[in-house]
Design brief:
By secondary structure, the chain is mostly helical. The chain has 13 helices and no strands. Helix 4 runs antiparallel to helix 6 and helix 4 packs antiparallel against helix 9.
Length: about 270
């Protein structure tokens, strides 16, 4: 795996070209262009806030609505990394299929194509940060040493997505049902992760059995989004069990994705 990582680094110019091409294609023939990266999360946050924060008068933000930032900041802090995750998942299945001609003609590590998908969505995620910073500026946020959770959250999510993309991109070439399954999986993962609601809502629910709460805590996505929220809400700091489980699952997914990709590479080339 280390040798492949080095090979990808040597071909970083190709990766850069792929990322820039994907970003250019996304915003071409668009009047607003980059502004769509800012409007989409704002629209989503506005809809969810209206439904859960206004219609249902929900006070589910950590510390209640009186906490710095409140529910709007909590929503946005979860929605932005979720859009990165969801976008990478959606494009993962097509990472190899859409580059079939390049894969069969260019002598480059095939891993760069799944890698470029994750990197492109990461760049789009970074482009949405001005929106979050404006919310922090006007609504407030408990910033301090907890901001150090941000690079860790980004790194873990990047590696987790890379493993998932390697796995799904290789499997989808041979089994096209994967692309349809991802659409369902994306929706399930969205509502089973602490994005619209803080984790304490699940952990304090009397109707939910203890074994389910333990399984929920060990969900790697729960740990990833808890780290993102901890940057602005220190009360959301992941537990030792949650953090350990997230790191272990990230390593397992990354290794499994890489091994699957390498094992199926010959069959993939024949299919493409």
């Amino acid at each position: 795996m280390a040798s492949k990582a080095l090979a990808v680094w040597r071909n970083r110019q190709v990766v850069s070209l792929l990322v820039r091409r994907d970003l250019k294609v996304k915003y071409q023939q668009s009047i607003l262009g980059y502004a769509w990266s800012l409007l989409e999360p704002l629209a989503m946050a506005g809809i969810y806030y209206f439904v859960f924060g206004v219609l249902y008068n929900s006070r589910v933000a950590p510390g209640g609505e009186e906490a710095p930032g409140g529910y709007p900041l909590y929503l946005l802090a979860g929605l932005l990394p979720w859009m990165w995750f969801s976008g990478a998942m959606s494009d993962a299945s097509r990472a190899l299929i859409t580059h079939a001609k390049l894969i069969t003609t260019m002598k480059v590590p095939r891993e760069i194509f799944p890698f470029s998908v994750v990197l492109t969505k990461f760049v789009e995620y970074m482009l949405t940060w001005p929106v979050l910073l404006v919310f922090v500026l006007f609504l407030g946020g408990q910033t301090g040493w907890n901001v150090l959770w941000l690079p860790m959250a980004v790194m873990v999510q990047f590696l987790f997505l890379l493993g998932v993309t390697l796995l799904l991109s290789s499997l989808n070439v041979l089994l096209r049902d994967i692309e349809r399954m991802i659409r369902i999986l994306n929706r399930v993962l969205f509502y089973s992760s602490p994005i619209l609601y803080p984790m304490h809502v699940v952990m304090t629910a009397e109707k939910i059995p203890e074994w389910f709460k333990t399984v929920y805590t060990m969900n790697p996505l729960v740990g990833i989004f808890q780290m993102h929220h901890t940057v602005w809400f220190p009360t959301e700091t992941p537990s030792t069990l949650m953090l350990t489980s997230t790191l272990v699952w990230t390593a397992v997914i990354l290794i499994a994705g890489y091994m699957t990709f390498r094992r199926l590479e010959t069959a993939i080339l024949k299919e493409l």
